[in-house]
Amino acid sequence: MKKIVIIGAGGQIPAVLIPLLQKLDVKLTLFGRNAASLPYTNVDKISGDAHNLDELVKVIAKQDIVYMNFDNKEVTKLVVEAMHKTGVKRIIQAGVLGVYGEVAQPFASWNNQMMGGNIVHNRGIEVLETSDLDYTYMRMTWLYNGTNKQYVASPKGEPFLGAQITRRAIAQFVIDNIVGKRNDVCASIGLWEPGSENQAKPTFY
């Protein structure tokens, strides 16, 4: 039974991911500011602050996989330090597109206008790529709620083409890595919905 901790468990992707993980043979720990109030059963819920190294060490100890549901460089440094202290090697982090200037036109112009220039700097990938961890960094395009669980997984070095993806598809990518259907280790993966390539913007904008 794999032991998985979700850091930032109150987010919108975990709301989709957690019920799917509960169908698998895993032991879940949910960590976040208000984790104790989350509406899940048969999980460990630990309220805490991801900016606190001691709290991170306690919650990461004896886990097999860390799923980090947000992208903050300083917190990522702390998570990596906690993983070193506890010997945990596997982390999957939700991140942003554009960290390599890889977003292709026509979508790039709209994306830059919406995101601003600074958002692609000071990201967790800068920490993960210099670590010795088995990391997967998800460069996610614009998210929406829906039932489509299909995704395109684009490796680092390829143009980023897709304008949208469902949170359900992101959750599927995470699960596929957890169960071994995929093995995106030491990888920064662009994720978008098949058919959303070469759009000027997401259809929901």
Going across the biggest sheet, name each strand in turn: 3-2-1-4-5-6-10-8
Number of distinct helices: 6
pLDDT averaged residue by residue:
96
CATH hierarchy, class: Alpha Beta
Low-confidence stretches: none
What is the CATH T-level topology?
A: Rossmann fold
Tell me the total number of β-strands. 10
Distance between the termini: 41 Å
- The CATH architecture: 3-Layer(aba) Sandwich
**Helix content percent band:** 25-40%
Structural class: alpha/beta
The H/E string reads EHEEHEHEHHEEEEHE
Outline the biggest β-sheet.
Answer: 8 strands, mixed
Shape: globular
> How many structurally independent domains?
1
What portion of residues belong to β-strands?
Answer: 15-25%
Gyration radius (Cα, Å) is 16 Å
CATH homologous group name: NAD(P)-binding Rossmann-like Domain
How would the blueprint of this fold be written?
Elements: E1 2-7, H1 12-21, E2 26-32, E3 44-47, H2 53-60, E4 65-68, H3 73-86, E5 90-96, H4 107-115, H5 124-128, E6 134-140, E7 142-144, E8 152-155, E9 164-166, H6 167-179, E10 187-192
Parallel strand pairs: 1-2, 1-4, 2-3, 4-5, 5-6, 6-10, 7-9
Antiparallel strand pairs: 8-10
Helix pairs in contact: 1-6, 2-3
